Amino acid sequence: MRFLTALLLLLQILRVGGKYFPYERVQLSESDVVARANLKFGKTSGQATNSSSNCKTYPGDTDWPSLTDWGNFNDTLGGALIKTVPPAWPCHNGPFGTYDAGKCSSVKSMFSNSSFHMNDPASIMSSWASGSACPPEPSAPCTIDGYPVYVVNATTVKQIQLAVNFARNNNIRFVIKNTGHEFNGKSTGAGSLSVWVHHLKSFEYIPAVTIGNYSGKAARVGTGLQAFDLYPLMNASNITLLSPGGDTVGAYGGYMQGGGHSVISPLFGLGADQPLSMQVVTADGRFVTADPQTNSDLFWAMRGGGGSTFGVMTSAVVKALPVTSFASLSIAFNAGLDTSAISVEAFWEGVRAYFKDILRQAEVNTYGLFVINTPTTSQSFSMSLKMIVPRMTVSELTQFMSPFLSELKALGINASLANSLQHHNSFADYGFHQLTTSGIGDRIGNTRYSSRLFPKENFEPDTLVFNQTFDAIKAVVQAGYQIIGDAVAPTLQSAGYPDNAVNPAWRKAVLHATAIYAFPTNYTAAMIKEQHDRLDSLVRTWRELSPGAGSYLNEADIQEPDWQSSFYGSNYPRLLKVKEKWDPNGVFYATTGVGSEAWEVRASGGLPTQNGRLCRANTGNGTYGV
Ligand SMILES: Cc1cc2nc3c(=O)[nH]c(=O)nc-3n(C[C@H](O)[C@H](O)[C@H](O)COP(=O)(O)OP(=O)(O)OC[C@H]3O[C@@H](n4cnc5c(N)ncnc54)[C@H](O)[C@@H]3O)c2cc1C
Ligand SMILES: *[C@@H]1O[C@H](CO)[C@@H](O)[C@H](O)[C@H]1NC(C)=O
Ligand SMILES: *[C@@H]1O[C@H](CO)[C@@H](O)[C@H](O)[C@H]1NC(C)=O
Ligand SMILES: *[C@@H]1O[C@H](CO)[C@@H](O)[C@H](O)[C@H]1NC(C)=O
Ligand SMILES: *[C@@H]1O[C@H](CO)[C@@H](O)[C@H](O)[C@H]1NC(C)=O
Ligand SMILES: *[C@@H]1O[C@H](CO)[C@@H](O)[C@H](O)[C@H]1NC(C)=O
Ligand SMILES: *[C@@H]1O[C@H](CO)[C@@H](O)[C@H](O)[C@H]1NC(C)=O
Ligand SMILES: *[C@@H]1O[C@H](CO)[C@@H](O)[C@H](O)[C@H]1NC(C)=O
Ligand SMILES: *[C@@H]1O[C@H](CO)[C@@H](O)[C@H](O)[C@H]1NC(C)=O
Ligand SMILES: *[C@@H]1O[C@H](CO)[C@@H](O)[C@H](O)[C@H]1NC(C)=O
Ligand SMILES: *[C@@H]1O[C@H](CO)[C@@H](O)[C@H](O)[C@H]1NC(C)=O
Ligand SMILES: *[C@@H]1O[C@H](CO)[C@@H](O)[C@H](O)[C@H]1NC(C)=O
């Protein structure tokens, strides 16, 4: 009997734990680094080293590693070190090559396509945040500026450990890039060594696992997997995996670690609610497991506490969720744009009717995604709404929507659903449909945000605060900004009551409202500063109308006031303790990340960008050098 138990235990260990993916079995050992001072492991966590410098070292500094050092480092990596070349180099005569009209025009045409940047070792999508070092504009300069200097194209854990050790021992700024979707420059940085985790895409379906309170199906996922990678994998194993709405967004990098809302969040919570266990390279260069039993503080923090802060995650075991069907529909109406246009008054009454329906829709686990735009400078407005509702047929959804549709009809809005109703057998099917209609590659570009996680109280119809909330959102559109709203309620109940670091504001939210402004590659700092400040004065009203609510750190204003409580809520003090324990010397840095108030980027250009030295805060001329 005891023998049988032991055997079963062994089988369990072998099955689940193959524990590592093959790329994680290649690890750095003490003997590898015994004779290499700049590659040695860090002291055990908790012991700060004595750094005499207030700033990270920078190219040109005397203590910046020599070319020989970099070459030796590259050898230990097996040749995986890449020297950054800005992808828009063909648009410029300069250090990276000579102007090539054909190549330049093709770069230009792809520069607003996420596929292009996700496949580049260093480029980010919202390039303003790097200081726009090399835009696809021949008239602009092209420099390395806010890009990392070198990138490790990681295909093994050992390479990541070597990179962390090399950066820490040489006092070099360290960056992690997965896809480069992040809006505020958290996946880039001047004078840095970056690790690119994009190619860590392994996958394994685990039919049964017991970890912590969870027993059931699971999957082991490489940190580089993107939403579009997951649809066929879900389909093949007849499971559901929570993933982002944008097909090229990484499902297990900054998205998951910072929260991660999804079409299926009303049923299953957020991305951060999915991991059962993680594998992480920590600031001392060691490779550890973080789960409910082992390093549980790290495990808690890395589920909601933000990317690039506590360690480099290489893989996770996540819940494999049941397959459910969905019905979906779209509605669009506008004022002043085409032959179906209605009056401006009727337009806003239509939006109000939708806002009044949000709580009713939340009761059936709807994910509502809407965009309100003012596409021209005149009195023209457009609203498009997509609703995705689980476990309903198309006719049930039609019936459910009929009170709302009657209200729209009474306003003269053509609310015919004829062409938009769809049924999907699974979340994977929904994803396939999205891919076949849009291709792999979201449209992206220079984008800034401001956002608010509005709780239920703001959306109780017929209350004063409802009216005020409606008016405050309307005012932002009237001022020329785009609103993207995710009407989603990832409650603690939907998430299965996990103990993790997700911003508590998410658990009460019924609408993640974002105000967005995008700008061309030839922007000026003054133009953005004006747009930012004007929006901020309007969003102040959003904050006043939802006291104690927060903002979603992954789709937010980098200049959000009191960001510690807005992005992390009551978790902030505990998160800071975890940060101090696991990264006492600040190996990892992300702007507005936990503990980042101890640092500043001495940026140039007058905007809060990453194109400057990273230094201890309060030793220079203010956070952003302005
Ligand atoms: C088109 C588009 C659609 C989006 N859709 C959604 C959506 O549906 N839901 C939603 O919640 N958000 C969405 N977002 C926002 C998204 O959550 C953030 O952009 C997020 O930062 C992307 O994470 P990433 O790993 O793909 O990107 P990256 O920019 O590569 O990384 C983001 C941050 O995570 C860190 N990081 C990455 N990998 C790791 C790792 N392995 N270990 C530790 N740190 C790591 C990086 O250093 C950086 O700080 C969308 C963004 C865009 C541009
Ligand atoms: C840190 O380094 C400085 C300069 O080298 C030295 O004066 C100081 O005593 C050191 N402090 C500790 C705690 O080792
Ligand atoms: C690293 O080594 C590889 C293989 O030898 C080489 O192709 C690459 O250019 C080197 N990287 C750098 C930055 O020198
Ligand atoms: C990075 O590594 C992957 C996997 O080995 C390889 O396919 C890719 O070409 C490399 N990319 C660059 C830019 O070196
Ligand atoms: C999903 O899987 C089913 C059954 O395995 C298969 O018939 C179907 O074609 C798959 N769908 C897609 C879009 O690949
Ligand atoms: C897929 O899983 C669902 C439950 O999640 C189950 O009802 C269904 O029978 C499964 N389909 C196949 C083909 O295994
Ligand atoms: C209403 O919208 C539907 C679907 O978009 C369209 O087919 C129909 O022609 C429209 N009707 C009118 C009167 O505009
Ligand atoms: C982006 O590029 C990819 C790959 O080339 C393509 O499939 C996709 O359609 C493009 N997307 C857009 C919005 O242009
Ligand atoms: C809210 O606004 C509507 C429409 O303007 C108005 O009819 C209603 O009385 C207002 N309700 C409250 C509580 O202010
Ligand atoms: C497990 O469940 C208990 C009781 O519901 C809860 O207190 C605990 O936080 C849960 N543990 C984890 C790791 O989620
Ligand atoms: C940017 O370029 C557009 C034309 O492509 C031009 O109309 C606009 O004035 C330029 N803006 C600035 C700030 O240079
Ligand atoms: C602070 O700003 C002044 C004037 O702009 C400049 O001369 C000085 O070097 C700056 N100091 C630091 C530490 O950056």
UniProtKB/TrEMBL annotation:
It comes from the Eukaryota. One of its GO terms (molecular function) is oxidoreductase activity. Keywords: Oxidoreductase, Signal. Residues 144-323 form the FAD-binding PCMH-type domain. InterPro entries: BBE, FAD-bd_PCMH, FAD-bd_PCMH-like_sf, FAD-bd_PCMH_sub2, FAD-linked_Oxidoreductases_BP, Oxid_FAD_bind_N. Residues 1-18 form the signal peptide. Belongs to the oxygen-dependent FAD-linked oxidoreductase family. This is FAD binding domain-containing protein.
